[in-house]
Amino acid sequence: MKPINLIIAGIGGQGLVMTTQFICQAAFLEGYDLKSNDVIGLAQRGGRVWGSVRFGEKVDSPNIPPGEGDYLLGIEPMEALRWRHTLKASAKLVVNNRQVAPTDVQQEKEPYPEDAVEDMVKTFNTLHLDAVAEAMRCGNGKAANTLMVGCLAKWLPISRENWIQALKDTYPEKLHEVNVKAFEKGLELAKEWT
């Protein structure tokens, strides 16, 4: 099996590192070889953060070559847009529509690229949703990333059982119930997504 290439993009403080760990653990439990990385440089200052997960039969590097990304999990829309160049034309995207202005926008060094985000959403097979609002309906808005992974899980060759076990392996026990609910809600939201 050729490696599956997944990019995760967001803003510091949005839980990208734990989300990357969750996805990696699920792939590991499924028996795949995997490699991942995450760049958290300015995370404490609201700067851009990103990660990659590659899994399959044999994976040599965590780096995704330009034009080879199969999936993009956009925790923040503008940050998702920054990784458009890495995607295949057939890529599938889950993009949270809730904007968190990164440092460059807050400092008015650049405008928020709403039109470009909208173009990306229309160009690719995208599930565009308010993941925080959906997660709040499950009991905690902080479970938004888990909900988004649930949406993406429809397309990934990992069993539901391994996703749930990975969730329990990754998150503290007190957060298991809400995260399982959020993951299941993500699966449900993805049912209509073709």
Which terms summarize this structure?
194 residues; alpha/beta; Pyruvate-ferredoxin Oxidoreductase, domain 3; six-stranded mixed beta sheet; 8 helices; 39% helix; globular
Your description of this structure?
With 194 residues, the chain is an alpha/beta fold. It has a single domain (4-192), classed as Pyruvate-ferredoxin oxidoreductase, PFOR, domain III (Pyruvate-ferredoxin Oxidoreductase, domain 3, 3-Layer(aba) Sandwich). It has helices spanning 16-29, 77-81, 103-106, 114-123, 131-138, 144-153, 160-170, 176-189, and strands at residues 4-11, 33-39, 48-56, 69-74, 87-96, 125-129. The chain has a 6-stranded mixed β-sheet, with helices on both faces. Helix 1 packs across helix 7 and helix 6 crosses helix 8. The two termini are 22 Å apart. The relative contact order is 0.17.
Straight-line N-to-C gap = 22 Å
Number of strands: 6
Number of domains: 1
Which CATH architecture? 3-Layer(aba) Sandwich
CATH class: Alpha Beta
Strand content: 15-25%
Q: How are the strands ordered across the major sheet?
A: 2-3-1-4-5-6
Helical residue percent band: 25-40%
Structural class by helix and strand composition: alpha/beta
Count, helices: 8
Q: Catalogue the unreliable spans.
A: none
Note the run of SSEs as H and E.
Answer: EHEEEHEHHEHHHH
The CATH homology group name = Pyruvate-ferredoxin oxidoreductase, PFOR, domain III
What shape does the CA trace take?
Answer: globular
Characterize the main sheet: 6 strands, mixed
State Rg: 16 Å
Averaging pLDDT over every residue, what do you get? 92
CATH topology: Pyruvate-ferredoxin Oxidoreductase, domain 3
